Amino acid sequence: MQKFFRREGILFVISAPSGAGKSTLCTNLRKSPDFIFSISCTTRPPRVGEVNGEDYFFLTEEEFLQKLSAQEFLEHAKVHGHYYGTLKSTVIDALKNGTDVLLDIDVQGARQIRQSNDPLLRNALVDVFIMPPTIEELERRLRKRGTETEEELAIRLKAAREEMKLWPEFKYTILSGSMEEDLTKFRAIMRAERYLSRRLTLIEAPF
């Protein structure tokens, strides 16, 4: 089939309070060949089952700060005492080649990309906030995860309340339900964004 259009890649950013289901959603989306998943760097210890180079690049604080000093990050943030960052080169190269990229980052990182002066990033960005159905359900999910002490849990819930206030900053907000429901909602956003006329450049007129 003749290809009449080309487009640059779309940068899908998914953010949510800790425990809202963001990472689980992204894990399921990673099975799709529709885009690449940008693996973030972090200084936090790996959780059970996490693999270096697949879930995160686990760095020492010294290694992270060296990359930060060298301006290798697209965005970075310190969350719950640990650094997180997205490597710039992988994302930019993919977008220029017309490949869609999925980022699983916190609200601070999403804001940094939103405020970027880079026209490629500003045009590519589609930011999605995952809103937990209730704070009680969020607490239940965090407790089920079983990775935090009571003190850490209280800190995360307090931070979640503040992060949930930021949902109007995002282009889309998904009220989290079951995993199947969240996937269906995100894929609807993905399909709509890919067909926007402003994303397309005509290479050869079909008329």
From TrEMBL:
Alphabetized, the UniProt keywords read: ATP-binding, Cytoplasm, Kinase, Nucleotide-binding, Transferase
Q: Can you list the GO cellular component terms from the UniProt entry? A: cytosol
The record's section on PROSITE patterns has: GUANYLATE_KINASE_1, GUANYLATE_KINASE_2
Question: Is Transcription regulation found in the keyword set?
Answer: no
Q: Can you tell me which residues bind ATP?
A: A16, P17, S18, G19, A20, G21, K22, S23
Tell me which PANTHER family the record gives.
GUANYLATE KINASE (PTHR23117:SF13), GUANYLATE KINASE-RELATED (PTHR23117)
The function of this protein is: Essential for recycling GMP and indirectly, cGMP.
The protein's name in its UniProt record: Guanylate kinase
- Taxonomic classification: Bacteria, Pseudomonadati, Verrucomicrobiota, Methylacidiphilae, Methylacidiphilales
